[in-house]
């Protein structure tokens, strides 16, 4: 279908200066977000970072205190029901307590947001292994989550807003859902998902924004964020090391957890390096490098670093 | 069930109303059975009750008690039907049914997480609130039809001698007083986002209405309290004996419309948090 692209909207979601206060508590501070159409955009961050609040604002479930929000070219509140017909949403905390059957409930939601193609509900349910005849309240957490996935995808919306979509699903179904996200993107749909499972963001998302304490603390492609992130370095040097090397490495910005041990002839160095690796390698070259391992940075570790950076109000953005 | 899903699901008119009615059929049947049972239990006793002994018994009771439970006119068919059903157990039944439905429609749906999911689909807040209110209204009217039919069937055999039009008048008042509590529960649930608030406020309105008119019945200097009692608006002019009470119905139905507007405005304005 590719609604977002075909209607010529330059962005699927644009958020500028979004504030949300709950009484005295500020959930979102001047949040900016741009989701390009036809992409998978990941929101990551710890609990309480503001992911769910942000996504709920896009659906007009909660109203911003201030800021501009545009979803598929419309303000969520002004766009109303017609806008939400073009969005599929999975709530972060999906609770289904009704005694109605899964099929009847999905049909009810389809009546609101349809049209739903004939057989769409059945084929989604079959793909995920969901029994449509059971009452929803008797379902396990994983099966309830499948209901959430089906109701978000069934009307083939231009935009999918998914708050922790794989939560509670077993690994096989998780993989299936991630495959569905990629298929949706290839089909021209835009996906905005939140997660604290970083591997699923790594596997699927094109772009990522990292939220902490109601702010975007980093944003960019998954690859970009990895370059800017934390590596673990271990080296074994022969000769000419010791205190001189320690002084030199201490002077390199981004080096932390430095540990230098002498083992007879050899010197063992381990450290974590944030950012540019080049000055570290040059410093090591004062000796002879016998062994060197630089671990591929883990997004989780980088993001944990960014949480810390957030409290220092450091904001690093892709230019 | 699978076959039902298999049909292509197109947008339908008033989906929330439709679902509210379809999903509530069990409760609807349960309340209807309750109404039929109470009507069937009490009304056939009227011929036996209309005796000098009963009149003597009532005369021996304190006037205050008789007035409080509304048994002054119990010797007439209309008075008896009013005193045993519409003004007593029937009042309790339709009030509880209305409060349960009204409190569940918005406050209960929000608390259970269903509202967030529904509102994320293509339905507006105003539309949701209004359709929910209409669903409650339709369900209460259906109970009214059940009560009307049940009493009409027993009218002859139980020698009640109430007129069909007066019966319609009291059913409108009875549904109206249930609807008033139901919409109070709907509004409180919509303001607070909690089912318990709806139940509390709805029940408070019903109990206060009953108590106010009972107090007013017994104390002439407190007679002014009557005008604040939905129970009095419904039954103060004895519609089963005297026919339609226009001002009373206007207060009940107009008040219900106002409370529905409050519920709609409250839901439309605030965050849905669950």
List keywords for this structure.
heterodimer; A: 319 residues; 14 strands; 35% helix; 30% strand; elongated; disordered N terminus; disordered C terminus; B: 274 residues; mainly alpha; 77% helix
Q: Strand sequence of the main sheet of chain A, in spatial order?
A: 5-6-7-3-8-9-14
Number of helices of chain A: 12
* Radius of gyration of chain B, CA atoms, in whole angstroms: 20 Å
Largest β-sheet summary of chain A:
7 strands, mixed
Radius of gyration of chain A: 24 Å
What features would you describe in this structure?
- The complex is a heterodimer of chains A (319) and B (274).
- Chain A is an alpha/beta fold.
- Chain A is 35% helix and 30% strand.
- Chain A contains twelve helices and 14 strands.
- In chain A, helix 5 packs antiparallel against helix 6 (141-153).
- Chain A is elongated.
- The relative contact order of chain A is 0.14.
- By secondary structure, chain B is an all-alpha fold.
- Chain B has 14 helices and no strands.
- In chain B, helix 2 crosses helix 9 and helix 7 (77-111) packs parallel to helix 10.
- Chain B is globular, with a radius of gyration of 20 Å.
- Chains A and B meet through helix 3 and helix 4 of A and helix 1, helix 2 and helix 8 of B.
Q: How would the blueprint of this fold be written?
A:
The complex is a heterodimer of chains A (319) and B (274).
Chain A lengths: L2 H4 L6 E10 L2 E11 L4 E5 L6 H8 L7 E6 L4 H9 L2 E4 L11 H12 L6 H9 L12 H13 L5 E5 L7 H16 L3 E6 L2 H7 L2 E6 L2 E7 H6 L2 E9 L4 H8 L4 E9 L2 E9 L3 H7 L3 E8 L3 H13 L4 E2 L2
Parallel strand pairs in A: 3-7, 3-8, 5-6, 6-7, 9-14
Antiparallel strand pairs in A: 1-2, 1-4, 8-9, 10-12, 10-13, 11-12
Helix pairs in contact in A: 5-6
Chain B lengths: L1 H5 L8 H9 L1 H18 L3 H4 L2 H9 L2 H6 L8 H35 L2 H6 L5 H31 L8 H29 L2 H24 L11 H6 L3 H4 L3 H24 L5
Helix pairs in contact in B: 2-9, 3-7, 3-9, 7-9, 7-10, 7-11, 9-10, 9-14, 10-11, 10-14
